[in-house]
Amino acid sequence: MERREFLKHSCLACLAAGVSGVILQGCGSVHWAAGSVENDTVALRKAEFAYLKKGEPAVRQWVLLKTEALPLPIGVFRSGEDEYAATYLECTHQQCELAPEGDHLQCPCHGSEFSGTGKLQRGPAEADLKRFGVTTDEDHIYILLK
Fold it and tell me: 26 vs 29, 53, 100, CA distance in Å?
């Protein structure tokens, strides 16, 4: 095999490995929900957090909520039985979209980290995330956009 052909095959193999890692990571426990805004409020069903894991009931930590009112999603973090936090998933450093990683949010652009409630944990960002007010009833979480 010639050097040029070897390099071509090696680069293709590395690219395939990298892409498959991203694809598999996207199959994780992140759940998307859609919500419509009514009177500056978005309603999210609490049932969006429930799912079956190996046939057993389980509860998600995160639901990502997409609305027509905002270009990026809202991350709704469940920290307890009836405790929720809603944050805008835009990094305060350079406006990259954040990704849930366990119980925190990670910026893929420059590595900033935020808690599930939006508190800055590690820079280069210098400010907490935009947070929304949250109220609940028996079946819904209401996110107050203003």
Answer: 8, 17, 11
The DSSP symbol for 49 reads G
**Domain check: are 104 and 36 in the same one?**
yes
Do residues 59 and 12 both lie within one domain?
A: no
CA quadruple 90, 92, 95, 99: dihedral sign: negative
The reported pTM is 0.77
- Cα(92)–Cα(128) distance, integer angstroms: 7
- Residue 145: burial class (beta carbons within 10 Å; 0-12, 13-18, 19+): middle
Q: Which residue has the tokens 């994780």?
A: 28
Among 23, 42, 20, residue whose Cα is nearest residue 33: 42
Closest by Cα among 38, 95, 105 to 67: 38
pLDDT in tens, 10-69: 544 443 333 333 333 344 468 999 988 999 999 999 999 999 999 999 999 999 999 998
72 secondary structure, DSSP code: S
Residue range(s) defining the domain that contains residue 105: 31-144
